[in-house]
Write a structure and sequence with these properties.
Bound molecules: zinc ion
Strand order of the largest sheet: 2-1-5-3-6-4
Order of helices and strands: HEHEHEEHEHEHHHH
Number of helices: 9
Radius of gyration: 19 Å
Low-confidence stretches: 137-144
Strand content: 5-15%
């Protein structure tokens, strides 16, 4: 692998991938494969490198990825994209018999209100919520949970296949005392319609975008979606050995959102 084209420092998912590769007994995994050398910054072949387009959007919400082991090695893993865009992304590998003490420390940190993002039909109804804590009580201000609203939301996403995610959910007792945020079918189908997605399964990056939307972080959510679209385009074109059109609508949308974000940043100092 070569250095990334950008100067970004390796993020949480990148570090997790590196430590997984170090333990790998299959050295070919680290190489670029038959189609050429890959960029260490975005995992794509150098001609399709995405690093120059990578947007970073600071958020109040945090994302905590709990990743199935092999997920970190997949060049198509979209948890990576979340870590690209959202600086407060943490990533931990999951194992049935051990738990990373750093994960437990994050979950115990009082600045965060953790939410396990998982389908509600698999959970006891009293544990399931469909909005962030404090939001439901908006109309009845005296019952509003102030402690929950003053904390930063931390979305725990299980980055794995559906079977693995169910296993992680069932066999991680340290997640048991957190509310389960269930994305409602209407939200998901409206989302799919808007994004013209054919698959009935949302990828981890799309789930993160929905969560950020729920937390009111619209710019971050839109940026993440636009970045996912551009990544998908680069990934597929690389796979099919096709050239990219850097000026198509997908790229333009991402650039527009990045410009919005720059403006947002410029305005911040004048707004104490
Ligand atoms: Zn790159």
């Amino acid at each position: 692998m070569t250095q990334p084209h950008s100067t970004h420092v390796p993020h949480a998912v990148s570090r997790l991938r590196s430590s997984r590769l170090e333990r790998s007994t299959r050295p070919f995994l680290a190489r670029g494969g038959p189609h050429g050398e890959r960029c260490a910054g975005c995992r794509l072949i150098l001609s399709h490198c995405l690093c120059a387009l990578r947007p970073v959007v600071a958020t109040r919400a945090g994302i905590c990825l709990i990743m199935a082991e092999h997920e970190t090695l997949k060049p198509s893993n979209t948890g990576w994209l979340i870590a690209d865009v959202v600086p407060d992304t943490m990533a931990f590998g999951w194992a049935r018999t051990t738990v990373d003490p750093a994960l437990l420390a994050v979950l115990a940190n009082p600045q965060w209100q953790p939410y396990v993002v998982f389908p509600g039909e698999f959970v006891a109804p009293e544990r399931m919520i469909t909005q962030l804590l404090g939001e439901q009580a908006d109309t009845t201000a005296n019952t509003k949970d102030v402690s929950a609203t003053s904390k930063r939301p931390l979305f725990i996403l299980l980055d794995a296949t559906w079977q693995e995610a169910r296993k992680i959910f069932k066999k991680s007792p340290y997640l048991n005392h957190f509310p389960v945020l269930s994305l409602m079918p209407e939200q998901v189908s409206r989302y799919r319609l808007r994004r013209a997605q054919q698959e009935d399964h949302l990828c981890t990056c799309e789930v993160a975008a929905l969560c950020l939307n729920l937390a009111g972080e619209t710019l971050a959510a839109q940026t993440l979606e636009a970045y996912l679209d551009v990544f998908t385009e680069h990934y597929l074109r690389a796979k099919q050995q096709q050239k990219l059109n850097w000026d198509d609508d997908l790229h333009q949308r991402l650039r527009d959102l990045s410009n919005l974000h720059d403006l947002h940043d410029l305005r911040l100092p004048a707004n104490p």
